């Protein structure tokens, strides 16, 4: 199995969720993150003191998928998240040894 | 309200009335900052809460400033004939000069002239501030600043003059001689219909927020909304009971009506929600409070307890339903200024025609009549409808023209990038709440 | 309080007293919304803050409504003999009809009758609202609504009549002739013992929250708690100094005592914490403020500065220790209504027996006596104990019966699922704060 | 202010003045808790917000307590010659004993003596509380408690006596006979210069916060800052218009000036930011509000509308620039007590020398003169400069000595570990907001 | 070494923590997450406008463990998190090349 | 490619960011976390009831890097995060199958 992780623009979350569902993903885990990269941060000014905030709000999506589904899911994720502007984010795929569904204790692809 | 110009009184200070009116002025200012600012600020998304707070502070700043300069004079200057049926001379009391106590709004009840200026200043401020709810999340900050000044000058000050300053719609104006003296005890027309119609006009000019409807526009902090609603209720006693201009039984009647109409409106709004949506919500409670307050405002001392209960109860249901209009007709009145203030203001103003009375400590100006259900016939109802209709048209048309001109000259709408990325950051260079990753690099303030 | 029924006065308006009483009424309403709502709302977990705010708003809505309808009449109607020693006729002034100024609570000091209604309305509201702290996080919303109405009608209005309306426990009642006129200047029995004992009764009926004790019930937002405590302090001057019914030296004595007793109670609560827990906490400061306010309430104008300092100082320690009772005896008084209001109310009521005086601007009703430490012997102390005990039993028993009936009829307790998953969501369909992932799908409001 | 000691009046109660003064006292207390507490609390990082709130509550607690015990007496006791030019006898009215109404601050206007005590108590409290902004995030809690008591006793009470209690700097003191009666209507010297200079002295003793400048010290919650600023504005009407001591035209002039100066100061602060930083910020709006309020305080009733507009407008610019001083000179005045209160207080005090007038409802004490721009020559300006300079030196030197002694005896500064890890946790054992992972293990309270 | 990641119901955190401790885990990292899966979200209504919130609050736990300990730790985690209701979450195991203790610079199993 | 993950003390974030930049890392993702380990938590007291909070605030940093860069990046991270006190955190390295840049769809090392 594989873990497909995407760090994307927060306002794409909804579309990405739909796209993954359409690609047959039955579950995913979402969390808040901040990114640093080519996309510039911003400055804030408080009583004349300037703060540089170089972290940009992002959303992280993780989906565990079967080896065979990984490419399609990845493609769906990338396509739905894409706006073409700097800061669209990254998607990466990592190997997973095993998955367990907590409720039932099932293991492997069936636990997805 | 009895707090109005009465020429030629020799002035004799009444410290009790003066104490009450200064207190009222204080708590009505509180209605704008912080109450309304938080009521609205909690309802927007966290990326634009500061902009909302700022727009309310700005209203206090600009309108406060011009009110002292010429607004009071334009509203309550002494001329009331000819063109001055519509607005008074802005330079008569420029900077409040020559405004002696015997010429003040409270001369007849021993309240110094400057107290009248103070009390009324807070009304001008909040009327402008109310509009921010309609246009949330998308107006250019500089355009808002310009708008507050132009709109107060061209719409609010004139309407205040017409209704309360002895002008066109006042108990001594043409409607009064034609039908009956219109009743607007504390500002159903001047404040709520006025702001509500203006909000609608601006919304049409501004267009919808990106993603509306259908997008995620839920309130970012409901406790703030509740805080704002509660403080609005608290301050509104200054608004309504203060509009009597004195600490007396009529003020007490306004107090009681403001209390009970609001209590009942909250309950009926919640009931409407429970029936329609299956749940009574805290946003509904806060909204019901405001709807009740709005509706009882024009009627504050002009009905008895039962009238107040009826007006509050009806307003709770009507406004709870009216907030659906924007979805039906597709205008993005972001925080329901139309549904609550325009509809609530009309509801209260018109219902006076049914419930007005001068018994049980209730009061209305000479020339007004009891309402339809209290045996006074239909005349008062007609007068109320005429005044409400006039206020709607007057405010809507003028606001549309003002907004249109600003749009042509400097633009009204923020860039889409700022709107999506967050107004607070784009416009004010700030974010409301702490987050990880802020690094101060440059700390030298150019002084 | 001197703000009480005195039959047959010809009414002469005093604008100063009227101004003060309307102002007091405004700031006492503020004590419930937003002050108490935020004091409690900050103390619960974030998943039930809206429910807590709502319960307080509801108290203002339902109790406000019935107060105007019949509550005032039931509390302050004129009959005071026979069964009317315990409550007056609810229909005498139904909807405040026929309540002329000469029949009002402030007739003797020139305050219009409706101002008396207004001021007292806010007491009824907050007494009911206080109970919410005990029952936080687990009561059915509909049961709470029903409870507010029944409890106010069957417990609060009668007790107000007994103590302040010339009834059983008043300076003209049997305890007064037997021992000494009981002193309850601003509501130690009627408000605090009353609400505290009621909270205890409901807690016993409701049972413990899932996971209590031992679970994670820490306050979700301590600044809200501090905001609430601060606004309670601010509003309490209306409560205590307003209870004089006039703007005079006795009111000023109540003001001073309310200020200093609270200051000292905060300090002694913090000291107790420092000694016991090793730290002085902000929740302790907020709690100490409220404990001091509660304890000084009955004594507000009936002691001198030293008496106030003593009462505040003792209450700070006693209440700080009393909040441990619930752990020892295992009753889940969620936000310490028993520890603060019941214990604090008893503390203040009883300590009057030691510190009462009529020197240094202090005042008590005719028939009362100086306290034990001020040379008046033990009589006043006994009278205070009798009244406190009566109020505890009266409120506890009646509340238990009311709660029991509601439990049988409609149920009192929320489902465990709602309690664990979050009341705000389960009951009101809302969450207090923004989070990722809200999508609006359906935007059509059925209107 | 006219609210001052006038010996030997037979006392005749004026309920209107009394109502106004009690109300003013209430809203000035609100300025400290919650207003100032939240204004500052929002500006610190989330790990020290509770400590900031606590320091403000403590100021109310300790100073409130000693004010009633001996502070009022030390400030407004009757002796004003010899050493008593600098402070009065703390034991004359110990615990307010023997303070009859004819000896009170409001004897001449029918306000009971205890009301004067109440009103002035809130000034003592807030002056001490203002200092917390300078020393945020790093002072030992026990040292702060000790400091509040010592500083109030040795600095505030004497200065209040000197300026308002008939002492050294009062209209009957040496500066008045030498130059002109100094004007400080509501506390430019006693409150703002006093607190500002004290803040500077403590900052020098405490040293910089770890990481300052250059580190991430942005406000953790700007809506709290706005809430605080708004409530400060609201309460400040009690501060300024209340300083008249009566509900009359002079109070109304103070009201109007407080309103318009603040409105304009907010606008000019924002303009300064826009020009300098490219953005108008919400923190700037909040700061401008406070700067305007500070600057108009001494001048509140002593200028006309144009004077108020000028003072507000100038203060907005001057203070917006002055907050850069700490970066230039490297003193870590955390929340700009120097930039806003010291500089703003001096600005207002000195500008009186230009704008003072007794026309248009404005007022100043006998022996004062019109300002330079109003034809009164340079004398008043010189008197104002002398008084401001005296207050700066007096407060700075005494505070430095007090702080130095505390530093030697018990230490002033928190451990670096506590500062970095979070004061709330280290000192109070609390965190302001809920987070994951709190488990209650021990629930037994030792009682 | 292995990284055992669990996405669980927030109210199970305490028990899971104890169970992992009992299983000999000396450290773990916890963060907030939201999940999407079989468990239904909820709707919220604001002034009559209905919002569908399909993300459910979850807590993520990560524990680095020695290869040999992975099965036992996983079992302990699953067992402690299990309530048997839909939404109990997933646990997955991924390979780890190396671990370093920042304080000392130690590497490998000793750094756990 | 590798994913270098570090769980560090929040106040080291700034230095770590700079160090990674200096080590040639062009992007990273940051999120908030809480840790449990040798570092003791704390107790809080609310109205006399004592709460044990055994989770300590941490910051998690993730950087995708080329295989060759992994050791250097890891070292830079560890060095910059180190204070020598208990609680400094962990860094771990996991294998990554593939990385995609969302904006362009590029894959592999070029997507970093
Ligand atoms: N090497 C990396 N490791 C981990 N996350 C990265 C890396 N590079 C970029 N990211 C994440 O991707 C986001 C977008 O990267 P950025 O360089 O700004 O834009 P783009 O990928 O469009 O060129 C960053 O904010 C960060 O969260
Ligand atoms: N394929 C997946 N990839 C990542 N996380 C998942 C996946 N499926 C489920 N989850 C996580 O597990 C949680 C529970 O899943 P759910 O399907 O609701 O219940 P259950 O696992 O009991 O069938 C989800 O909220 C989500 O956080
Ligand atoms: N086995 C582990 N798995 C995942 N994270 C861990 C593990 N051990 C420690 N951590 C993380 O590292 C942080 C520091 O660990 P700790 O044991 O307190 O100090 P140190 O690493 O300096 O010995 C913890 O707070 C936790 O976030």
TrEMBL record, chains A, E, F:
Pfam families: P-II (PF00543). GO terms for molecular function: ATP binding; enzyme regulator activity. GO terms for cellular component: cytosol. GO terms for biological process: regulation of nitrogen utilization. SMART domains: P-II (SM00938). Keywords: Nucleotide-binding, Phosphoprotein, Transcription, Transcription regulation. The keyword Transcription applies. Homotrimer. This is Nitrogen regulatory protein P-II. It comes from mine drainage metagenome. The lineage of its organism: unclassified sequences, metagenomes, ecological metagenomes. The gene is glnB_20.
């Amino acid at each position: 199995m594989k873990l497909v992780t995407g760090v994307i623009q927060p306002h794409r979350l909804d579309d990405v969720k739909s796209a993954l569902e359409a690609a047959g993903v039955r579950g995913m885990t979402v969390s808040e993150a901040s990114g640093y990269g080519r996309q510039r941060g911003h400055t804030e000014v408080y009583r004349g003191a300037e703060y540089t905030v170089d972290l940009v709000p992002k959303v992280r999506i993780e989906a565990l998928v079967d080896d065979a589904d990984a490419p399609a899911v990845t493609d769906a994720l990338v396509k739905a998240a894409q706006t073409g502007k700097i800061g669209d984010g990254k998607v990466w795929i990592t190997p997973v040894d095993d998955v367990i569904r907590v409720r039932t204790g099932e293991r492997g692809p069936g636990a997805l | 309200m009895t707090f109005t110009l009465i020429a030629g009184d020799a002035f004799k200070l009444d410290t009790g009335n003066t104490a009450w009116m200064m207190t009222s002025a204080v708590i009505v200012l509180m209605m704008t900052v912080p109450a309304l600012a938080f009521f609205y600020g909690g309802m927007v998304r966290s990326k634009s809460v500061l902009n909302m707070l700022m727009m309310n502070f700005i209203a206090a700043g600009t309108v406060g400033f011009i009110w002292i300069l010429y607004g009071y004079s334009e509203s309550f200057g002494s001329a009331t004939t000819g063109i001055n049926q519509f607005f008074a001379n802005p330079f008569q009391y420029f900077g409040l000069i020559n405004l002696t106590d015997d010429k003040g709004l409270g001369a007849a009840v021993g309240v110094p002239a400057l107290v009248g200026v103070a009390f009324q200043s807070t009304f001008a401020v909040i009327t402008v501030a109310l509009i921010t709810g309609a246009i949330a999340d998308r107006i250019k900050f500089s355009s808002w600043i310009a708008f507050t000044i132009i709109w107060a000058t061209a719409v609010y000050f004139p309407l205040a003059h017409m209704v309360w300053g002895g002008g066109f719609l006042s108990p001594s104006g043409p409607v009064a001689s034609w039908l009956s003296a219109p009743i607007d005890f504390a500002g159903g027309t001047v404040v709520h219909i006025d702001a509500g119609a203006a909000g609608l006009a601006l919304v049409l000019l501004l267009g919808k927020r990106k993603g509306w409807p259908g997008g995620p526009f839920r309130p970012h902090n409901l406790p703030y909304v509740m805080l704002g609603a509660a403080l609005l209720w608290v301050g509104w006693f200054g608004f309504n009971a203060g509009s009597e201009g004195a600490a007396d039984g009529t003020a007490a009647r306004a107090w009681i009506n403001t209390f009970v109409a609001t209590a009942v409106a909250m309950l009926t709004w919640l009931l409407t929600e429970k029936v329609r949506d299956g749940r009574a919500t805290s946003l509904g409670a806060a909204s019901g409070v405001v709807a009740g307050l709005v509706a009882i405002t024009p009627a504050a001392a002009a009905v008895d307890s039962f009238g107040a209960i009826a007006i509050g109860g009806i307003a709770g249901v009507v406004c709870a339903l009216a907030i659906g209009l924007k979805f039906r007709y597709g205008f993005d009145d972001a925080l329901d200024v139309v549904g609550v203030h325009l509809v609530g203001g009309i509801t209260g103003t018109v219902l006076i025609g049914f419930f007005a009375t001068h018994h049980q400590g209730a009061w209305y100006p000479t020339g007004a009549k009891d309402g339809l259900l209290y045996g006074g016939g239909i005349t008062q109802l007609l007068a109320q409808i005429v005044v409400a209709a006039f206020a709607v048209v007057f405010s809507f048309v003028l606001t549309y023209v003002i907004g249109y001109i600003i749009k042509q000259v400097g633009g009204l709408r923020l860039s889409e990038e700022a709107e999506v990325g967050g107004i607070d950051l784009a416009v004010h260079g700030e974010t409301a709440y702490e987050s990880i990753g802020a690094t101060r690099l440059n700390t030298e303030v150019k002084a």
